Structures are given as structure tokens and as C-alpha cells.
Amino acid sequence: MTRLLIIEDNPELVANLYGFFEPLGYVLDDARDGATGLHMATQNDYDAILLDLMLPRLDGMTLCSKLRVEFQNPVPVLMLTARDPVEDRVQGLALGADDYLVKPFSLKELDARIKALVRRAQGRQVEGTLVWEDLLVDTRAPQAWRQGQTINLTPTTHKLLLCLVRAAPGVVKKQQMEYLLWGDEPPESGALRTHIHDLRLRIDKNFTSALIETVHGVGLRLHTPGEVTPELSHSE
Asked: Range of 42's domain?
């Protein structure tokens, strides 16, 4: 079962995509503007994203850049556009898009390209897991494994952990984590701290070394046990 996010503001095209892909067994979500699309892409786990370039609120180029750079999200992205200048294609691929299709296009060709992207992405993972040091995280279910122990996660701690593993050893900023969980309307300031504390208890408390470290004034990262970096701390 392939889960696909369509970020496209043309309702007729969206309806055509639903009509073609749902009978093939795809599970579809859609967003009609870039800001909503980015929020959905970072909130959920998709096999691929169809991304229009000309979108209200946030254009496709900027969305793709944020997805790759700020959120370290490797989900395959296929850009859709009515324009075909070489510089647009080059820029889109440079910003992290995996493929590019010019409108109007064949739905059968689109299906073939999506399948190829998903196959390549699956080849970069091991049976649906992401790995950092001795930690394995299921990308679909809220579950992880460390040192032979199964760790049950909440949906929220699962989202945070996936974001950290995908960015490792890079830092995930506090603002990125808040957007990941709540979009443009984060709750009171203590909510994120509570979820981070919960994640630490699950991932680090009962093990011989801590993986989650705070970069003071910036955010969190996963590190290699034994690595010494003065500005980092295990405490929240």
C-alpha cells in the first residue's frame, strides 16, 4: 500500500488523481496550499509527495527546500509544473526534488515514476526502519528497539524521534519540533519540554548510554556515545 500526499491547488487535477490512483490501491491525502502541504508532510509518514510549483501561501520550491534542509525529511518528491524551462528543472532537483514532470502528463507515466521513486527510497531503508548507533526506529509504527529491548512510543514521541534520526548528527531546532507537532499554533511553552522528557525516558533512561543531547539555546540532536562536545548536555 503506497501512501501519497498531493500538494496541488487545481481541484480538477486533484480529482483526476484521486480517480486514477485510489482504484490502484494508493492511499491519498491532499493539500491545496504550500503551508498546509508542508505541515502535512512533516506530520505524517508518506511514501511519496506530488508537489506543484505554483502554490498559494508557500511555493513548491521553498516547500521542498524547507522539507529537506529544515526538517531533514527524505520522502521522495516528484514536482509537477506547467512550466518547462531548464533552469526550473535544475533548481527543483538542486533543492531536493527526486523527479520532475511537466503538465499535462500521462497518469500512467506518473504512476510508473512514483513506483520507481518508492522502490529507490525503500532500498535506502532496512525493512521500514531508520538506524542510529544501537537504535532502530520503525518508520510506520510507534515502536523502536535498542540493545535488544522493544521501546513503545506515543505518536508524538515517534514523530520527534523520526525527525531526530533523519537529521542525525545534525541539530533539530526547537521551532522545527514545534512546527512538526502543532504547525503554526503551538500550545503553551511547556508542552514541547514535556514530550522531550517523555522521549528521553523511553530512549535513554534504561540504557548504558544516552543518545539524546540538548544543544543549549538551539534544539536537540542524536550523538554518538562517548563523543565529547562541550556545548551539549544530556539534561533538558
From this structure: 3-123
